[in-house]
Amino acid sequence: MSATAVLGCAWGDEAKAKIVDVLAREHDMVIRFQGGNNAGHTIWLKGQKYVFHLVPAGILYPDKICALASGVVVDPFFLIEEIANLESMGIRFSNRFFIDPRVNLVLPLHRELDAKSEAVTGREAVGTTRKGIGPCYSDLVARVGIRLEDAFHENYLLRRLNDLYSHHNLEFTGQNELVRDLLAVAKKLKPFVKQVPYLIHSSSQKKILFEGAQGSLLDIYYGTYPFVTSSHTSAGGIFTGSGISPFLVDHIWGVFKSYYTRVGNGPFPTELRDRVGDRIRERGREYGSTTGRPRRCGWFDAVAARYTCMINGINEIALTLLDVLSGFPRIMICTKYKINGKLTEEFPSHVNDLQAAEAIYEELAGWQEEISGITDYQDLPGAARNYINFLEETLQIKIGIISVGPDRVQTIFRTGFK
């Protein structure tokens, strides 16, 4: 068995789904290992738009196995709707989509708690999607969470729900309706239930692709805390979330946009609050797949990129949305921060230091040519190749895939993948 991972290496929204889709052709199985339906992955294929929130992007290939591992939290009602929507578009799920029975369930209570938390936090609000993901992970860690397999045992489910509501100092008054709904949705999902560690390890001759959600700068430990998500979005999450050994992953792809974006609150040293930022947003259609919120846009941050490459052990980079930068007379890359008068190449651990960071830039010439139809690296404008070469030298990692448009075919390969 060999395994490859695709990780977002910024604040999410790096167009990971397209890279997963491109690489999935060379793999047999695609495993999602963390996050919930707060992640939105968009793929364009032959002019058709597909939006995924829980289902792995590899499902677009009819011969691939896809699975949600135990590190994912699942809103079961949302998942049923997502499956039905994709089935209506001609995608088959039977015998090739699986869910680990250990996944914790996102309940209506979690969405209520999420909204309440954001409302009372005020100016320090994280800016979550209010999908209930954080409260669900909190309950998991507090050992009061509800797992999918609990819904196959009615009396046990009832006790667990009572414990959950008591933990939040609430009376469980809606037991009949909620229990009935959970039992019904669990029955619909039961044909998909399979222990993912056994699924993976029974595939000794298979090639596995692990799909990350969000990005490393949103990792609960190593992200811009507290403006982070509630799961392990960095490489370590692959192993705890999927039940596999670290020694089984051979190659880790880090996905970066050619510029940086962020949704929600939190520090963003290279953010552009001007017409340039607005132009990047419009050219890149930078609006959240899950919420529709406009994304904050800024220049590429090599300080942050070196940090996320380091903590993830990135072997190779996939650079996306290079076409968005066409038409800019100059392009800036942040290579250092100035914090309290001192230059540093280290990404700070404290949010206050990052908030105070002034981005120090290197300026490169831009290019005017439209590049969305180019599939050979040597056909890119010289200034675009210079930009890529500068990033490689700065990060000391090869850029093996370059995306110049949303469709599967709008991809330049500099590796063995074709």
Give me some keywords for this one.
single chain, 418 residues, alpha/beta, Adenylosuccinate Synthetase, Chain A, domain 1, Adenylosuccinate Synthetase, subunit A, domain 2, Adenylosuccinate Synthetase, Chain A, domain 3, 3 domains, 9-stranded mixed β-sheet, 4-stranded mixed β-sheet, 12 helices
Structural summary, described in words:
This protein has 418 residues and is α/β, with parallel strands linked by helices. The protein has three domains: 159 residues, 3-Layer(aba) Sandwich (Adenylosuccinate Synthetase, Chain A, domain 1); 87 residues, Adenylosuccinate Synthetase, subunit A, domain 2 (Orthogonal Bundle), CATH 1.10.300; 157 residues, Alpha-Beta Complex (Adenylosuccinate Synthetase, Chain A, domain 3). It is 30% helix and 21% strand. The chain is built from twelve helices and 19 strands. The two termini are 21 Å apart. The mean pLDDT is 93.
Radius of gyration, CA atoms, in whole angstroms: 21 Å
Domains, number: 3
The main sheet orders its strands as: 7-5-2-9-1-10-14-18-19
Summed over residues and divided by their number, the pLDDT gives a mean of: 93
Class by SSE composition: alpha/beta
Q: Can you say what the CATH homologous superfamily of the largest domain is?
A: Adenylosuccinate Synthetase, subunit A, domain 1
Strand content: 15-25%
- Sheet bearing the most strands, described? 9 strands, mixed
DSSP E strands, number: 19
Estimate percent helicity.
25-40%
Question: Overall 3D geometry?
Answer: globular
**Amino-to-carboxy terminus distance:** 21 Å
Number of helices: 12
CATH architecture of the largest domain: 3-Layer(aba) Sandwich
CATH topology of the largest domain, by name, is: Adenylosuccinate Synthetase, Chain A, domain 1
Low-confidence stretches: none
* CATH C-level category of the largest domain: Alpha Beta
